[in-house]
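Exercise 7.
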Amino acid sequence: MLQYLIQNQDITSFSGYRTKAISKYFFELKNSEDLEKIPEIKDFAKKENLKILFLGWWMNSFFAFD
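Solution. The predicted structure, written as tokens, is:
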């Protein structure tokens, strides 16, 4: 696993509807240098057969999971 990924992160605050949600892995872009980590994250997700979801501020997201 990549050391800069946070496991089991509560992402409820990213939902405009405040639906309870926990991400298996989480990474927040904080500066332009973080952009360089995206290819490595993409490779990790592919290897682990994980989907990537990009979230932006002010999104009316509703999280629903199986």
